[in-house]
């Protein structure tokens, strides 16, 4: 079997192959590749999670749609004490029609979320009031208002008073006025906003059943290598696959919709067949990106006519990563409009995570219409050693004192990454203690 150097020298390069790029330049290439979102679709709320809004999210109604009680207690009109009106069936409960209007000096029971009757000036909290039987009025008989005709509306027979030490509620207290949160037609979220569970809740609250979103890029994950086990501990010279379980969640956090995971052995023809049969917008592969005797990704890309955009990045770990544009001749129904890409990740787990953060994240965010993540900087709590000519991505925790590097950050290790709150981007030469350093978020979903 030929040595790796000889093997690499004999492998033709896909069209567009170039020298290794710096880490910042490689990120720019990935951003440019995804600069045009794939398309727009209208989908039910339940299918929109993880997509990006393709248009501003506007309210279809006032929120709240009517004056609403913020507490359990009594709706009151005017100063105390109040005549407590006996409730009709369902009156004062959430989900029921609004109660009859209150006259000055009247009160009625009310529950949180119930519509506030006209005439109410405030809500008196349940713990602040006490209902007492009213004393009969002389000459009228208990429960009869002077001058009341037979069959007229019953008169309140109970008085609502403040408990000792409690002051009367000020005007409007514990009433959520109509339109307090938003008005009908008001734009609440901008196009490009990521649809999170909270966004889905807001969309429902303002009356939406569907959302117009950018189509999430479909991704097929190809896990390459004969040496990988799918269950149990490593044994007999074979190792447990860590990337198959790890990457789907990472890619989904970047906006991808995973359509499948295929395992492909160290066989060039099998890899070519897998690449040709995939219909995903983006194919993500693990392993076979370097120049080993069984690394067939480069020759497979040559065979299918791919164009390399990135072929190696000056970063540690993960430098043998690649980004390629795939041909669409096999897809005549979308030829000319369809754009397909391949992101090649190294086989070592932490190196693959670095490559995903470098190339997959900006590509997938762009294709899905989601704004690129804003970089942020924190102070280095300790010196971060650098490489003379390569950027380093270092797992860090982020306590108040700044970025603290974690151990176990070798290319094949995941222990440090599992504890990390971010990846510090350490430029060539390193970062001194107390100096600012850029940090990338670590996917957590």
From TrEMBL:
Keywords: Magnesium, Metal-binding, Molybdenum, Molybdenum cofactor biosynthesis, Transferase. Its EC number is 2.10.1.1. GO terms for biological process: Mo-molybdopterin cofactor biosynthetic process. Pfam families: MoCF_biosynth (PF00994), MoeA_C (PF03454), MoeA_N (PF03453). It is an enzyme of class 2 (transferase). Its cofactor is Mg(2+). The keyword Transmembrane does not apply. SUPFAM superfamilies: MoeA C-terminal domain-like, MoeA N-terminal region -like, Molybdenum cofactor biosynthesis proteins. Residues 131-154 have a biased composition (Low complexity). Residues 128-154 are annotated as: Disordered. GO terms for cellular component: cytosol. It catalyses: adenylyl-molybdopterin + molybdate = Mo-molybdopterin + AMP + H(+). Residues 220-366 form the MoaB/Mog domain. The keyword Metal-binding applies. GO terms for molecular function: metal ion binding; molybdopterin molybdotransferase activity. SMART domains: MoCF_biosynth (SM00852). Pathway: Cofactor biosynthesis; molybdopterin biosynthesis. Catalyzes the insertion of molybdate into adenylated molybdopterin with the concomitant release of AMP. Belongs to the MoeA family. This is Molybdopterin molybdenumtransferase. The lineage of its organism: Bacteria, Bacillati, Actinomycetota, Actinomycetes, Kitasatosporales.
């Amino acid at each position: 079997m030929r040595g790796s150097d000889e093997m690499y020298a004999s492998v033709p390069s896909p069209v567009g192959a170039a020298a290794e790029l710096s880490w910042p330049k490689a990120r720019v290439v990935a951003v440019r590749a995804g600069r045009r979102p794939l398309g727009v679709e209208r989908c039910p709320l339940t299918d929109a999670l993880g997509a990006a809004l393709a248009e501003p999210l506007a309210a279809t109604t006032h929120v709240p749609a009517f004056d609403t009680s913020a507490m359990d207690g009594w709706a009151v009109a005017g100063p105390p004490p109040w005549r407590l009106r006996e409730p009709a069936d369902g009156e004062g409960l959430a989900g029921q029609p609004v109660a009859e209007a209150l006259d000055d000096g009247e009160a009625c029971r009310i529950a949180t979320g119930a519509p506030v009757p006209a005439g109410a000036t405030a809500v008196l909290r349940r713990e602040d009031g006490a209902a007492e039987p009213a004393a009969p009025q002389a000459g009228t008989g208990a429960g009869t208002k002077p001058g009341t005709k037979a069959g007229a509306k019953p008169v309140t027979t109970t008085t609502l008073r403040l408990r000792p030490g409690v002051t009367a509620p000020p005007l409007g207290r514990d009433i959520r006025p109509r339109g307090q949160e938003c008005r009908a037609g008001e734009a609440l979220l901008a196009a490009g906003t990521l649809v999170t569970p909270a966004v889905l809740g807001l969309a429902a609250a303002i009356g939406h059943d569907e959302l117009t979103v950018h189509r999430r890029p479909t991704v097929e994950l190809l896990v390459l290598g004969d040496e990988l086990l799918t269950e149990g501990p490593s044994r007999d010279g074979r190792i447990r696959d860590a990337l198959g379980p790890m990457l789907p969640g990472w890619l989904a956090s970047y906006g991808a919709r995973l359509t499948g995971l295929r395992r492909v052995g160290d066989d060039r023809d099998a890899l070519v067949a897998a690449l040709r049969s995939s219909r995903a917008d983006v194919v993500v592969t693990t392993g076979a990106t370097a120049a080993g005797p069984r690394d067939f990704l480069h020759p497979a890309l040559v065979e299918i006519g791919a164009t390399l955009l990135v072929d190696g990045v000056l970063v540690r770990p993960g430098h043998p990563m690649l980004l390629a544009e795939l041909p669409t001749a096999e897809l005549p129904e979308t030829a000319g409009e369809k754009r397909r890409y391949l992101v090649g990740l190294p086989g070592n787990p932490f190196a693959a995570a670095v490559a995903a953060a470098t190339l997959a994240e900006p590509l997938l965010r762009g294709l899905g219409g989601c704004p690129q993540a804003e970089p942020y900087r924190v102070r280095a709590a300790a010196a971060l050693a650098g490489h003379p000519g390569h950027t380093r991505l270092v797992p860090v925790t982020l306590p108040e004192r700044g970025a603290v590097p974690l151990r176990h950050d070798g290319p094949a290790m995941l222990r440090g990454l599992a504890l990390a709150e971010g990846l510090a981007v350490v430029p060539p030469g390193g970062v001194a203690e107390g100096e600012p350093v850029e940090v990338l978020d670590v996917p957590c979903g």
